Structure formats: structure tokens, C-alpha cells
Amino acid sequence: MSYIRLIFAFILPPVAVYMQFGIGKYFWINVLLTLLGFFPGMLHAVYIMASRPPGLAKLSGD
Fold first, then answer.
1. pTM for this one?
2. Which sequence spans correspond to the domains of the chain?
3. CA-to-CA distance for 12 and 62, rounded, in angstroms?
């Protein structure tokens, strides 16, 4: 997990998710959670970035 994305996860959670995955289901879930409350959006961003490889990397080895 990149330190820049981690900083964005604490400041603007949807931007951090966008930087790692682009506009997809994780991004829209994070936008919704951030609109419902900043803390749930931040937790989701940190969790999703720590648990999933960025972009298309998950397609290469699994």
C-alpha cells in the first residue's frame, strides 16, 4: 500500500480508492459510505486498499 494513497484515504477516501481501482464498484461503495459519514468511508478505503491488490494485478496470479 502506497503512502500517498494511505494519506488520501484519511483526507479524501474516494480519491484513494479511485487511485487504486479506478471507477468501479469499490469506488461507488466508498462514495456512498463517505456521504453517509466520513469515518465509514475512511475505514472502507483503508480496508479495501490493504486487502486487495491494485488494479489488474489480481488477474495475473490468482
1. 0.78
2. 3-55
3. 30
